[in-house]
Amino acid sequence: MGKRRRSTRSGLTGRQLLVAQAAVVGSLVAALFVRELPGILREVRIYRMTGGLRAGHRYP
Questions:
Q1: Number of neighbours of residue 42 by Cβ within 10 angstroms
Q2: Distances (CA, A) of 38 to 25, 29, 34, 45, 51
Q3: What is the rounded distance in angstroms from the CA atom of residue 39 to the CA atom of residue 27?
Q4: Which three-class secondary structure state does DSSP give residue 18?
Q5: In a domain, 43, yes or no
Q6: 25 near 18, Cβ under 8 Å?
Q7: What is the pLDDT along the chain (60 residues), one digit of tens a residue?
Q8: pTM as predicted
Q9: How many domains does the chain have?
Q10: Quick one: CA torsion of 33, 36, 41, 47, rounded to 10 degrees?
Q11: Does 37 map to a domain?
Q12: Are 51 and 59 in contact (CB under 8 A)?
């Protein structure tokens, strides 16, 4: 039987790839949140002006 050679790879390990993918997904989520933040704040302001949960049946 011949000697087994260890293959030397210069690529990413599974853990490094997972961390890189998590970083990409996290940055995309953060960018989407920052982009939508003005609209979310506007909706919250309208919700508070109409009385929120206390408005009851006044607004359908």
A1: 10
A2: 22, 16, 8, 11, 20
A3: 20
A4: helix
A5: yes
A6: no
A7: 666 666 666 688 999 999 999 999 999 999 999 999 999 999 999 988 888 877 766 655
A8: 0.56
A9: 1
A10: -110
A11: yes
A12: yes
